[in-house]
Write a structure and sequence with these properties.
The structure holds two protein chains of two kinds.
Chain A (H helix, E strand, L loop, with lengths): L4 H26 L2 E4 L2 E4 L3 H13 L4 H9 L1 H24 L2
Antiparallel strand pairs in A: 1-2
Helix pairs in contact in A: 2-3, 3-4
Chain B lengths: L4 H23 L8 H19 L6 H17 L4 H5 L13 H35 L1
Classes of the chains: A mainly alpha, B mainly alpha.
């Protein structure tokens, strides 16, 4: 693909739009008000929930392990499937000798 | 290329340390940074070093791939055991008995071995492909 001025400008516009969306969503998260256990808490991100409750919920001292082996375990299954399918594809293309 | 004695000796020295570090990263994945994927990649580097030092390519890739698929079936099977005692799929089935950490270590070991075998297969497939191509 050649990088002419039109591609460059469209890439810049896409980057700006997505950057604005991400920036706006991150900033608006901080102003939200949560209602947890009949208490109204301001400025309580999902991050704070994981920091407070991961050891209680999952017996894991590492928050990342607590997420990928308990809260989001289905994600780990498909992530492992990804590597299996990659290996199958590499072996198939290698045998065919394309 | 001829084997270099200096390289072979140094790699033989650090070989057990790499194995030990890989198992450490896998088993202590729920305490310290690391986990199954990272530790599996470290374990796979021992197979790459085995190729670099001795130029062995008499590896049976089909058997390794069957072993990898077996590990993947175990990875799917173990989280579904929690249906039996917690009536909840994809959860920690040892948590009610106070052994939640055992489940995390078991899953990390399974994921680590599977990733190690997968990366080993990819590496040796590329090596054998290049060798076939150059003949």
């Amino acid at each position: 693909m050649k990088l002419n001025i039109f591609n460059f400008i469209s890439l810049l516009i896409i980057l700006l739009v997505f950057g604005f969306i991400i920036f706006y969503s991150v900033n608006s998260n901080k102003k939200r008000v949560y209602n947890l256990e009949n208490k109204t808490v301001t400025n309580y991100d999902l991050r704070n929930y994981y920091f407070d409750n991961t050891y209680k919920d999952t017996d894991s001292q590492n928050v990342v392990t607590g997420i990928y082996l308990d809260y989001r375990l289905y994600d780990t299954l498909f992530e492992s499937l990804l590597l299996v399918v990659t290996v199958m594809g590499i072996r198939y293309l290698n045998k065919r000798d394309v | 290329m001829k084997e270099n004695n200096l390289v072979v000796t140094l790699i033989e020295l650090i070989y057990p340390l790499i194995l030990l570090f890989g198992f450490y990263v896998i088993i202590y994945g729920d305490v310290s940074p690391g986990g199954g994927f990272q530790g599996g990649a470290i374990l796979a580097s021992t197979f790459i070093l085995r190729y670099i030092t001795y130029k062995y390519d008499n590896i049976h890739i089909g058997g390794i791939q069957n072993l990898e698929k077996f590990f993947y079936i175990l990875i799917i099977f173990v989280p579904f055991l929690s249906i039996l005692n917690r009536q909840l799929a994809l959860a920690n089935f040892l948590k009610p008995y106070g052994l939640g950490r055992v489940f995390l270590i078991l899953m990390n070991i399974l994921i680590g071995f599977k990733v190690c075998l997968g990366i080993t297969i990819i590496f040796y497939e590329f090596i054998l492909h290049e060798r076939r191509w150059s003949k």
